[in-house]
Amino acid sequence: MNSRRLVWRIARLVEIRDETPSARTLVLQIPGWPGHLAGQHVDVRLTAEDGYSTQRSYSIAAPADGERVELTVQRVPDGEVSPYLTEELTVGDEVEIRGPVGGWFVWRPNGTAPVLLVAGGSGIVPLMAMIRARRQAGSRTPFRLIYSLREPGERYYAEELRLPHPGLDVTYLYTRAVPDGWARPAGRLTIADMNTGGWPADFGPECYICGPTGFVETASDILLAMGHDARAIKTERFGPTGG
């Protein structure tokens, strides 16, 4: 899928789903879309009437589904692109999309090794595409997800992840506020969390980590300290981009 020359395509918004008060999923119809792999991303370009244009990259939130592509966008205060996508774009509107981009941070349903997904905040998006691709393919590959976020109201895909997914275990970590009765106190990811919610190194899991740079570096260091193979740890990080 990456051998094709990337071109800008017109995408029409066909559905909107709110995930949190500041994030929404956009379902786009893109004629001629070549398909994609779970973990890839796209570039979104907006052009103003005066000709000024700007673009941002967003992870794809769901596996390939014909000409439909799902993006989950977190609004960045004072951003150039995300406020428009999350507050102004309505069904029927069009944007320009280029992709799919990336061929390393991907999971393919023919994989047999156990999978560990480690998400920090909105870093859950490409990992959710992997979870959905697993279900779509009827794969029995065992998955474990460790999802770290500031507080319960920021959970993406909350209802979907509450549903039973045979072979998928989900562990939530909260860094600032926890639900009533939650056993683990608020705090950042630790080696104990990784031991409890992850896989032993001798299981040889494929590990995917996505989130802010500091979170990704911490999670990677923990996995390496636990004896995981560095070649099996794939990372995708993001930082301030202006939104």
TrEMBL record:
It comes from the Bacteria. The keyword Metal-binding applies. Its cofactor is FAD. CDD domains: FNR_iron_sulfur_binding_3. Keywords: 2Fe-2S, Iron, Iron-sulfur, Metal-binding. Pfam families: FAD_binding_6, NAD_binding_1. GO terms for molecular function: 2 iron, 2 sulfur cluster binding; oxidoreductase activity. Residues 6-107 form the FAD-binding FR-type domain. The keyword Glycosyltransferase does not apply. This is Oxidoreductase. The lineage of its organism: Bacteria, Bacillati, Actinomycetota, Actinomycetes, Streptosporangiales.
